[in-house]
Every structure is written in structure tokens, then in C-alpha cells.
Write a structure and sequence with these properties.
Elements lengths: L7 E2 L8 E2 H21 L8 H17 L4 H4 L8 H15 L8 H25 L4 H12 L2 H10 L3 H16 L3 H12 L9 H32 L7 H14 L5 E2 L17 E2 L2 E2 H23 L4 H18 L4 E2 L4 H10 L7 H23 L9 H25 L19
Parallel strand pairs: 3-6
Antiparallel strand pairs: 1-2, 4-5
Amino acid sequence: MESNPTRKHTEGKGAVKIPLAKRELAILVALLFVAFVVRLTFFPASGYVNDTATYQSWFNTAATYGPRVFYSVVGWCDYPPLNVYFFWVFGMLAKSLSLFGTSLFMYVMKFLPNLFDLATAFLIFTFVRKRLSFNTALLATSLYAFNPAVIFDAAVWGQFDAIYTFFLVLSLMLVFSSKPKLAVVAFMLGVLTKPQSIALAPLLVFLIYRKFNWKGLLTSMLVAAATVFAVIIPFEWTNPVTFLGNIYFGAYGGYPFTTINAFNFWGFGGMWQPDTQTFLFLNFYTIGWLLFAAMTAFTLYFVYKRFGVNDEMLVLFAAFVLFFSFFMLPTRIHERYLFPAMAVLALLFPFLKKIRPMYVVLTLTCLINQVYVLPFLNARTFTQAGDPVAIAVSLINSAAFLYVLTLMVMELQGKKWLSPKPRPSPVEKPS
């Protein structure tokens, strides 16, 4: 086996010699380019027309008034502050090209999340390539770059879930590289993009404390606060707590329902049912968050008990469990909130055989959930209680969730499916 990863390949006499690293980079760039072209073909799709009109208003407002007074003049916006910078930059582009009010605005709106999607695919490649062969890394990258559920979210619907997903994956990579301060910066940028990023917070806090003790955790908390202030300083506000609180809690409080089209545990009872209903003296809202808190505690216990055994895979699996639990258990969850789990599953796919069925099953359920509810949203109607598709997909997701719980119990009981196994060298054999 050759030890030099930059060895040169030749294909016959007189062939051009190409360093392996450059050849790999060229293939990766070609793959990502093809993935972008595939997505580009879906850009003209209208997605959810209400979202498109709302984005156009936000982009236009940011381009016209700038970030400082955006929240004062926009009327209504439930997106956290980091998004406003994106609205501003790409809104200025759309304005300079006179694209507002035209069908071409869709290209500007959808370019950003798809760009971040490809950046996440690149992170997946670099992580896997450092540990396994080039072909395996390329497979993992393709699983995300060409994942139909991911493409539908960013290229058809035009949602921004790809942005916070990139920051969350980056934060995990930085923790693995023993860079807690940068990891916290990346994580907070995710939170400042979409509030559901908070699902990863308990795991990140545990990891920083475990690896860097109280001092590292305290420093990281200060870095988190500094990141928030750096992002919101240009905005007009008198109290940062109320400024952010009104955005986050105002958005969450606007959907007091069991499920906002998410085919999860609450999906069996129908969509958009009031979560103020009670069971055993607790309303559904409280029950959902208690279930998520219990699952978070169990996940952290799982990581604590198995720490030191294939730590990177353990952490990635725990991140997946938290994302999956956040989709399945609390109320007020949208159909797209399973999105970040797709990136983590693609990362885990080459390493853990027992996780591979989850990639296939959840890709299908995530895709079906989005594709099925979109026409209802555009028609301003909802799936009815007892809808066979909603019940079937909710049942599959519930079975998948129980399978994940079973894997965790098996590992704690000593079955050791998470234990490291012999793997190929990251250096290719000579041809």
C-alpha cells in the first residue's frame, strides 16, 4: 500500500500526470456542479406560493431599508436576525436586476439555500475522506447532495433549512477538531437562522463540558453571547432580550397546534389540532415538551455511558436522535423539521450499518410529508383527521423512532453495535 496520498497516476505512455488530491478535488467539484444543475431545473417551481410572496416582501424590504430598521418597517417577520443579512444582500441583487415581481426572482430566492446545501455536502466529504476511502466519501456526499427530500426542500419549496443545517454540522465538525469557541460561533449562527437549531444545544453543552471542563464551557458561553451581540448590533433595539424574545417566542406562539403538517406522533390525531387540549391534567403542549426533555436526558445518558467508544459516531448518532426527537415529540412542528437529520444520516451511512435503513426510510417519509402537504397549503386547506397518507407516514416514522430507541437500549446492554470495527485505509491502493 502506498503511503503518499499525492502519488501520481498515469494511464499509458505519455499520459498527463495528475496528483491524486487534485484529481479527487476535480471529481468532487464535478459532482457538486451536477448536483447544482439538478437543483437548478427545479428553481422555476412555485413551491408554497405564500412563502414565495413573503420572501419577496422580506427581500425587498431589506434591500430598500437595510437591516437596521428591517423589523420596524417590514410589518411581520418571524425569522431570526441572521436571515436579514441574507435578505439584504440577495435583495439588493434582485433589485439591481429588476427581478422583484418577475418569475426570475425564484432563482435569487432559491440560490442561497441550495448553495448552503452544497456546502454541507462538502463538509460531509471532508469528514468521511479523512477517515475512509475517496469512493466512500464520494458516496456519502452523493447521498446528501442528491437526496430527494433535501432537494425538494431547497430547490422546489425554496426553504432556508439548509442554512442552519450547515451551521449545525459545522459546529459538530469543529467540536471534533477541539475548537469549542468556533463550534459555539457556528452553532449560534444556526440558532440565529432558525430556532429549531436549539435541539442540538444540550449535546453541544455536554461535549464542551466533557472535553474542556467548566472553564471551557464558561468561555464558550461568553463566545455565544458575543456572537449574538455581533449579529444584532446593527439592528434597532433597546433591549436585546426583548428584541430576540419577541422574534423567537412570537413566531412559536403563532402556531398553537399539535402538528403543523408534520407526520409525527401527533399526526395520528390530524393536523392543526389545538395543543391546549388536556390529558391527565396536562395540555398537549406541555406533554410534548416533557417527552422531548425525557428523550434528551436519555440521549445524554447514552452518550455519557458510552463515551470513549467510537466517540465521533456516538456524537453524530446522538445528534441524529435529538433532531429526530425534535421532529417527533413536541407540538407545533412543521413538516420540514426532519431536514437536519438527513445530513447526519449521510455522515453516519458509511460507518454504521444499522443506521443505513434510517437513511432510506426517513428520506422517503420526509419527502412524502413535504410533497403531500404542499398542494393542501397552496389550496389553503389542511389534511383531515384520519387521512390515510398522514396516518401511514406517521406510523412509519413512529416505527423508525422505536427502532432508534431499540438500538440505544441494545448498545447500553452490551450489544456494542456502535463499537469501532476495522475499516479501509484512507489511502487508495496503487492501480
